[in-house]
């Protein structure tokens, strides 16, 4: 029996620096043994892999992350002449690398969050007491600015202290009257 169009499956494993591809190709019909060859674009990248049982042929590739979109396919061929078949091409996008750094983001984001929390805490513990002190000062000031008991006591105290001292020559003594408004 001639082979039918094979099916190509590709499993991609990305690391920080490399991209590992596992290519698997199988033809579900055709006389055994079947020989499989893997291609990148139209260039063979594997030697023929012969299978005497109906199981997928496997080929592993390791590439660096920098690159373009790659297209892979496989060819299945058995002993019958002129009955080789190619799989549908499968495109693989290169892994993000170089400019993007998923690992960097995993480290950078928690670090930035921690710095933000520290800055907020510092601001809260420095500004909050000052705000509370200002608010307390505002709450203590009276609403009207007439003589309060404290002010009358201060002026009375000044008058008593001055009463015991000698008067300045040329000035006649007067009674001290609080005049704060």
TrEMBL record:
UniProt keyword Signal present: yes
Keyword terms, alphabetized: Glycoprotein, Membrane, Signal, Transmembrane, Transmembrane helix
Residue ranges constituting the IL-40-like Ig domain according to the UniProt record: 12-83
Annotated InterPro entries: Ig-like_fold (IPR013783), IL-40-like_Ig (IPR040878)
Gene3D superfamilies per the UniProt record, alphabetical: Immunoglobulins (2.60.40.10)
Superkingdom of the source species: Eukaryota
Sequence intervals crossing the membrane: 107-128
Record flagged with keyword ATP-binding: no
Name this protein carries in UniProt: Mast cell antigen 32
Organism for this UniProt entry: Mustela putorius furo (European domestic ferret)
């Amino acid at each position: 029996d001639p082979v039918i169009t094979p099916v190509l499956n590709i499993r991609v494993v990305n690391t920080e620096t490399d991209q590992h591809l596992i290519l698997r190709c199988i033809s579900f019909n055709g006389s055994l043994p079947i020989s499989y060859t893997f291609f990148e674009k139209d260039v063979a990248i594997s030697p023929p892999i012969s299978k005497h049982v109906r199981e997928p042929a496997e080929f592993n590739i390791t590439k660096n992350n920098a690159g373009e979109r790659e297209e892979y396919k496989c060819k299945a061929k058995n002993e019958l002449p002129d009955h080789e078949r190619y799989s549908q091409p499968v495109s693989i996008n290169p892994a993000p690398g170089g400019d993007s750094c998923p690992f960097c983001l995993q480290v950078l984001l928690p670090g930035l969050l921690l710095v933000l929390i520290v800055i907020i805490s510092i601001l809260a513990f420095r500004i909050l007491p000052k705000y509370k002190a200002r608010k307390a000062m505002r709450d203590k000031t009276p609403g009207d600015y007439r003589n309060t008991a404290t002010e009358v006591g201060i002026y009375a105290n000044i008058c008593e202290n001055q009463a015991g001292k000698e008067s300045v020559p040329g000035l006649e003594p007067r009674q001290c009257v609080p005049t704060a408004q």
